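Changelog entry

Holo records now carry the ligand SMILES as an explicit input line rather than a separate metadata file. Below, a converted record for adenosine-5'-triphosphate, shown in the new format.
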Amino acid sequence: MIRTEKATKQFGTLLAVDHVDTEIHEGSVFGLIGSNGAGKSTFLRMLAGILAPDEGIVRIDEQEVYENEEIKKRCFYISDEQFFFPNSTPDDMKNYYKTFYPNFDEARYRMLMDGFGLDGNRKIRTFSKGMKKQVSVICGLSACTDYLFCDETFDGLDPVARQTIKGLFAGDVADRGLTPVIASHNLRELEDICDHVGLLHRGGILFSRDLDDMKLGLHKVQLILRQPPEGDPFAGIEVLKREQRGSLYTITARGTREQLEERMTVLQPAFYEMLPLTLEEIFISETEVAGYDLKKLLL
Ligand SMILES: Nc1ncnc2c1ncn2[C@@H]1O[C@H](COP(=O)(O)OP(=O)(O)OP(=O)(O)O)[C@@H](O)[C@H]1O
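Structure line, unchanged by the conversion:
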């Protein structure tokens, strides 16, 4: 299990990660989401033991991660800025990783390289952006580590490669309890594979929850009121977003389906419907509440 307590990273006076507490359980798929500059890459690099926290604790199975070789052998980090030795081929990288990762599976590496149609002897610098990503992911999956840290890994991959890699991740989670931690802006992608999501905003964690629970605790309701209400029809409910066009209201509110249905029974609307929220809508609502609203630039 990964556990952080008040994990903090500062660059000069800039607080990139601000006292973050979180737990990531084995065999779960953890999605790390957040606005640009929120601290996702920095946090991921702390989890992978690349950056030391300035304050707080970053532990895997109760051991500090930074400069801990035994723990690092159980973690593979796929950076958003691809890392390859100058002039190297995929096979060179594979040989390097083989010396570090005790469970590196060469047969799997070969099978995946062939499957993706990649030449292990070609210089990586001659590969396209997406092909370089594929090489990183293939090395990451072949290293057979317990934890896989992915920074914008699906970015730049074509839809077939994305689906295939998502399937490979899911297979490793089911077969050998792999724990992927994936930072991404592609929330639709995350929604497919993650069971837990942490939202970082300005270095701090806004929430960290099961995706299903998150969806059960936030709803969008559209309703038409028969008569103009006296006072606020939603008083007592935590409404994150509200729009009104005549008698048609659309609200995004916290609460269970049952709690909101109860309010509908009191309001007796001419019509109402509860709409499921996507992860993208949840992200926008929660970050707007935290003061991140770029829509104002459009006005
Ligand atoms: N090496 C560094 N030196 C100075 N500041 C840094 C460094 N790395 C990151 N930062 C700053 O830390 C903050 C968090 O950056 P980080 O890359 O972790 O954000 P992010 O959530 O991954 O962003 P994005 O979604 O845009 O990739 C930013 O303000 C960034 O400028």
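Spot-checked after migration. The mean pLDDT is 91. DSSP finds ten helices and 14 strands in the chain.
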